[in-house]
Amino acid sequence: MSDEHKSVSAWVASESSAQLQGVLEDAWRVSGALDLRGWMLLDGRPCERIELWRDGALAARALRVERADLAQAFPEYEHAERGGFALTDAASGGRDAPVTLRAVSHTGAVVERTLVEREGGASASRPCDLGPQEIEFKPRTPSAAGGCDSEPGALYGVSIDTTSVCNLRCTICALERDYDLKAHMPLALFARLEDAFKQLRHISFSLNAEPLLNRELEAMVALAKQRSNGRITTSLATNAMLLDAARLHALSEAGLDALEISIDGVKRDSYLAVRLGANFERLVENIARAAELERGGGRAPHVSLRWVMSTSNLGELPDLLEFAAHVGVRHLVVNGLEPYTAEQSELTHFTRLGESELRAQFEALEDRAMQLGLRLDLPLLRPEPYTTCELIEHACVIRVDGTVAPCSPLSYSRAFYFEGREERHPLIGFGSIAERPLLELWNSPDYVEFRRKALHGPLHAACKTCLKRSGVICPLKHWNWLAAGAPQPRR
Ligand code: SF4
Ligand code: SF4
Questions:
Q1: Does residue 321 have its Cβ closer than 6 Å to ligand 1?
Q2: How far apart, in whole angstroms, are the C-alpha atoms of residue 131 and residue 11?
Q3: Is residue 144 within 8 Å of 16, Cβ to Cβ?
Q4: Would strands 331-336 and 302-309 be described as parallel, antiparallel, or unpaired?
Q5: Residue identifier of the C-alpha nearest atom 4 of ligand 2
Q6: pLDDT tens digits, one per residue of 362-386
């Protein structure tokens, strides 16, 4: 049976990874070519993409597919028309290899399930006789938003401004102009998260500025790892100007799990046109060093490149894929531009480009990424209408002075442009960890009520013009650590 071509259908309406696991874990052992068709929903919504990985390499990928027949079958389900997928992997090599189905929801929740596993290296296989299945259908519930086991209302992730200053002056950034605090967070203030270490699953050590400017950064990473016995995953986003060999190794030794490096141009001039004050040669050198460390397979953070896409640099994205493959980075995340000026609002991908034109460009990028074996996360083609926000259900941000806010847009007051008109993100804070423990602030009545309204409506006025919630910032950027497919902490 192992070399036969398998054609498999699965109908999966999944509210959680546990439910999905129930469908797949006992399903198949297949080593021939594989046709996989189905209907998969996560978090009550159609998946943004479904990928089939064989032996660690991306074999096939489907973006969300429209299925009018499913919409008829499940009229009570508002997204049923868009959950279908069809994947074919012909390149089996005739051997038993792990096959993983990876589904990503619009909120960035990721679910991975291995369909075929090696058994002690033997090519054991058994008939694949799974017919079409209909899995119990559940209406969407807010607590399912994370895509993995989670307690309603629990805090699992924080992003922290370990500093509020930067060594660059990027044209796309409001930090220098509008963030009124200029400081580094002291280790002693970070250590006041003590009560939350036992509950948190992820800490990002960056939010609005350049974290490597804080000389106590490594001590903070190490403290989070130590206090959680290695369980908390850790990441940071950086412009990499200070990511020399000593810093890279120090962060790695401290236990950093993921490095997100900003790059908005792969040519010297285009990069420097955005990243004012940066050094392109140093960037390339520092990316290559981090990628090499990761490839070495030892203690090293996972490296991804972050690209803020505008109509100015969209045409350079194919070069980014080649660059990443060349330097050995396997993961790219593309975000849309959040415009802070009227001029920038003319440069966003969703105002200037037709949807079909953009879709064609995205699909060409997806195809090339697949050929190169890269993971590519893209923003939505258009801002998506929304009436609720799940992004803050299990997460918050902490400013450099310890103030706790729901999300980055609400972490400091600044002007921005939404549908061509000027709006303003206010600061919405719920107290400071300098005064009260984080979990106490998280469970304070005002904050609980804010989150309840975010999940069930009506949204706060400040939320009704949020490009982050509408998917302009790649939805996969946020809170992947909640999902079963998120990187595991390194020990
Ligand atoms: S590197 Fe980041 S924080 Fe610094 S100016 Fe540029 S966008 Fe802003
Ligand atoms: S809608 Fe936007 S501004 Fe409002 S809570 Fe969600 S992420 Fe924050």
A1: no
A2: 9
A3: yes
A4: parallel
A5: 463
A6: 888 988 887 888 888 888 888 888 8
